[in-house]
Design a protein that fits this description.
The chain is of the alpha/beta class and about 200 residues long. About 40% of the residues lie in helices and about 20% in strands. Strands 2-1-6-7 form a 4-stranded parallel sheet. Strands 3-4-5 form a 3-stranded antiparallel sheet, with helices on one face. Strand 3 and strand 4 form a beta hairpin. Helix 3 packs across helix 6 and helix 4 crosses helix 6. The chain is globular and about 45 Å long. The protein starts with a helix and ends with a helix.
């Protein structure tokens, strides 16, 4: 499947009223920045910066481009740095992203392209306050409960927004592993589709 087909399918997914309430503060934050012609910096934060936070970063950047929302810059980080789990790249590749491995180290660096003419998203595992990420004037989006609860203060964040997802790690090494990672990617993608579809 190519990425345009993946995105077209997302438009048919219904977001529950409960999740819409969770996503509304993020919509409000982005809309306010757009209204004042300010850059939008979003830092998606999880414990290890290996799965959920990267999916959220990549899909948010992709949806900002898809809906033509300018000056949106998406980042991700963890309360500790580990490595991007290999299944994230595999899953995104199946959904139509172009994945390029830029370094083959313990903590590899990937370039992930969502459009042939756009700069790739540079992804590697890092802490949320890494110099690669913004120092201030950003929204900290907490994508997992342990990071949200274990990291009560995010220096420089204008807003702290809990948008939590279940950890697919629980299914690693099982017969449903591929299916569960794809489900999570679609769940995050559909919610980021909804968020950016609301920006005027």
């Amino acid at each position: 499947m190519n990425l345009s087909e993946t995105i077209a399918a997302l438009s048919k997914i219904t977001i529950t009223e409960e999740r819409k309430k969770v996503l509304q503060p993020l919509i409000d934050y982005i809309q306010q920045k757009v209204n004042f012609h300010q850059e939008v910096h979003l830092n998606f934060i999880c414990t290890h910066n290996s799965r959920r936070s990267h999916l959220a970063q990549i899909w948010a950047q992709t949806m900002a481009f898809h809906f033509g929302i300018k000056n949106v810059f998406c980042y991700s980080g963890g309360t500790e740095a580990t490595a991007i789990f290999f299944k994230i790249g595999e899953t995104l590749g199946k959904q139509g992203f172009i994945i390029q491995k830029l370094s083959d180290t313990v903590n590899p660096v990937f370039g992930i392209k969502y459009d042939h003419n756009q700069h790739p998203i540079i992804c590697f595992s890092k802490t949320f306050d890494d110099t690669f990420n913004p120092e201030n004037k950003f929204a900290a989006i907490m994508t997992c409960s342990s990071a949200d609860e274990g990291c009560p203060f995010i220096a420089g964040a204008e807003r702290r927004l809990p948008i939590r997802y279940e950890d697919p790690k629980a299914f690693d090494g099982t017969s449903v592993m591929d299916e569960k990672y794809l489900e999570l990617s679609i769940e995050i993608a559909s919610e980021m589709y909804f968020v950016f579809s609301q920006i005027k």
